[in-house]
Amino acid sequence: MSLRQRLLILAVTLLAVLFPAAYALAKTYYVRPGDTLWGIARQFGVSVRDLQRVNDLKGDVLYPGQRLDVPQGRIPDYAPLKQQINDYIAGKPATFGIYFKDLISGQSFGINEREPIHAASLVKVPVVLYLNTLAAKGQVDWQEKIAYNSQTDYQDGAGVLQFSARDGDKFSLRVLANLSITISDNVANRMLMRYLGRDNIAAFMRSLGGETVFPNGQNISTARDMGLYIQAVLDFYEQHPELGRRLLDDMANPIYHVGLPGELPERITVAHKEGDIEGVANDAGVVYGSRPYILVVMSKNIQDLDQAFADIARISKIAYDYQEQLAAQGY
């Protein structure tokens, strides 16, 4: 072995020790119009922090044609996290369906992720995403107004339109989409579903990979399917940043925040949708910590709603702590 080869091996070894998450450059990437630092990081399975460090970036502003060196990522082991969550839910009377996906590596796992559970208000995510998809194609106008019909649209529970809407009152698609997500307005959702058509919504959900879609006409889903719909929201954002950013912003600013965000630091953005009916408590969304991830927790046969959402919050905290530990270790 030549002196040059020995020095090269020594240099690589030192880099591996000093910078374990970013010592090897997998490839060179040239920024394209519409690219975001987070999207590039997710594409290559690395962290935003590593991209910034390797390329000496002080912020997240990119320019078309800009050259980025992409570090080689490390694949985390999620078996311990799955075991921690299993240990927490063991012995609880509720039945849980859980789906987790690390948005850096793409690694995912589920616990009873195909268990059919009433979706409750989680269904509003694919409904509003479908509306956004049509808007992005120019097939609907956000300013188009729909007239309220109490015979088809009324539903009690969450929301304000059940108290204020009168037959013939008109509401724009944009208002109905916002109300459906931010305050989980049931009347707004029913109006959108009437406008879009349940069969069309179902076909859209199946196109995203949904397996359990309105079986026997019921609002039943699974944690696995809801995880795919949350991923579809993120994919939509990558393709249509303006519309996608607005949808994620609505999801990040709901009036309900006791589930996934319940035990997390207030500075952490969580774009999510909670939902509950008698015996059921659910939450699904994206947690934007140091290592972003999708988490869906659905539960049925619950005895106490407050305790059910406390359980969701605890599961979310377990996942958050695990992700933060990985980030601290340089993953």
Describe this structure in words.
The protein is an alpha+beta fold and 331 residues long. It has 2 domains: 69 residues, Roll (Membrane-bound Lytic Murein Transglycosylase D, Chain A); 182 residues, 3-Layer(aba) Sandwich (Beta-lactamase). It contains 13 helices and 11 strands. α8 crosses α9 and α11 packs across α12.
How would you summarize this macromolecular structure in one to three sentences?
With 331 residues, the chain is an alpha+beta fold.
Ends apart, CA distance between termini: 33 Å
**Unreliable segments of 5+ consecutive residues:** 3-25
Supply the number of structural domains. 2
Rg computed from alpha carbons, rounded to a whole number of angstroms = 22 Å
Helical content band:
40-55%
CATH topology of the largest domain: Beta-lactamase
Biggest β-sheet: strands ordered side by side in the sheet? 4-3-11-10-9
Which CATH class of the largest domain is shown? Alpha Beta
Mean pLDDT: 90
Query: Percent of residues in beta strands?
Result: 15-25%
What multimeric state do the chains show?
single chain
Number of helices: 13
Shape: globular
- Please report the total strand number as a whole number: 11
> What is the name of the CATH superfamily of the largest domain?
DD-peptidase/beta-lactamase superfamily
Spell the H/E element sequence: HEHHEHEEEHEHHEHHHEHHEEEH
Decide which structural class fits the backbone.
alpha+beta
Q: How does CATH name the architecture of the largest domain?
A: 3-Layer(aba) Sandwich
